[in-house]
Specification:
The protein has one domain. The protein has about 100 residues and is mainly alpha-helical. It contains five helices and no strands. The relative contact order is 0.11.
């Protein structure tokens, strides 16, 4: 087995760093980065929307917490938070007291 085949060997690391340097040398416009961000946000927000629709009890618990701070449009804010923060909504809802 040569040095290039051993994991963590200098030859393999240098090839990986060389590849990383070539990738990082590409110039990308700000508009292209915004477009990639929007395309990645669409499935994330659709999943969050579906999560919020199928877990109304968590949305209601978050709404109850928001109503103590700002009663105006607390239902919309709770739905938006549940949609945007759906991976953490279980922990957020558990931290909110039930009505």
């Amino acid at each position: 087995m040569s040095n290039a085949e051993v994991p963590g060997s200098p030859g393999r690391i240098e090839r990986a760093l060389s590849l990383l340097r070539r990738i990082l040398q590409y110039q990308v416009s700000v508009g292209a980065l915004i477009e990639v961000g929007l395309w990645l946000a669409i499935p994330y927000l659709v999943t969050g929307f579906v999560w919020a629709v199928f877990h109304p009890e968590q949305t209601e618990r978050i709404q109850a917490r928001i109503e103590t701070v700002s009663p105006v449009a607390a239902d919309v804010a709770a739905f938006g938070l549940t949609t945007a923060l759906w991976p953490a909504s279980i922990q957020i809802a558990d931290a909110c007291p039930p009505r």
